[in-house]
Here is the input.
Amino acid sequence: MDPLKNAALIAVRDCLAVQPLETVLVVTDRERRKIGYALFEAALELGQEAFLLEMKAREFNGQEPPPAVAEMMKLVDVVLCPTTKSLTHTDARRKACATGTRVGTLPGITEDMMIRTMSADYHRIAELTHKVSEILNKGNVAHLSTARGTDITIPIAGITAISSTGLITKPGTFGNLPSGESYLMPREGESEGVFVVDGSLAGIGKITDQPVRIKVEKGFATDITGGKEAKKLIEMVEAIGEQARNLAELGVGTNYMAQVTGEILEDEKVLGTVHLALGNNVSMGGSVNVGFHVDGIILNPTLKIDDEYLLKDGKLLVD
Here is the structure.
């Protein structure tokens, strides 16, 4: 079988568990058209009815799709979104899930990424992800540090971690494909310190100039410095406003097949990395609802949850 078709089949059959009587909507744009069509073809084979909807690519991650697309997402059993920019943290996705729709988002997916990462054992990834979430759930304070200058304290007491396993099989659930991360929102307004992004930034790509240094005070990014990638991030944040500075997410990658490529969809899943995000945290139970969510990948991190090391110098200490 064609490798892309096979990857699409795994996504529809195994990850979304599409059943013969279910309806499936694939939302895509011009740049991801080939992947969208492969998913559509797989859905036609497995489901009762499938629809392929191509829209204009969004300008940034978290920007809402047109109202007609949002409405259609609520009318089917399963939605797959291979799009250039992420629809994960949108009201459209949240409202679709509220009606019972299962949603798999594939923002920035490439053919190479899809073929490579969809061959992973997602049951193995799910087991590891749940173990990481258990540790985060028991924790009160996360402390993240790196040799490149990251030193930030992130209160997480009472916050429930979300396991993004790649197995999106229950009504109203959602997740990324490829997947493999445990993530949660920091307690709002409480994180303090500095984090240094040296892997990649969502919507910007791999860090090829200087690492991006972000100072956080009372849960908000107050200062962003570095090279050309830092300048781009500052422009993005300033275009949105103060809420884009909210420290929105702490995530731990658990996908052993993922690599840092510059596409955040894959990068944030890389085993042995941690990511922090700015902007929208509503999907994690927070109060900051803004059309902006930008993750920054931190390489070789040491992450301590209370007195327990979860990662040390980029090695995940979970069996």
Summary: The helical segments are 3-15, 33-46, 67-73, 91-98, 111-117, 122-138, 228-240, 264-267.
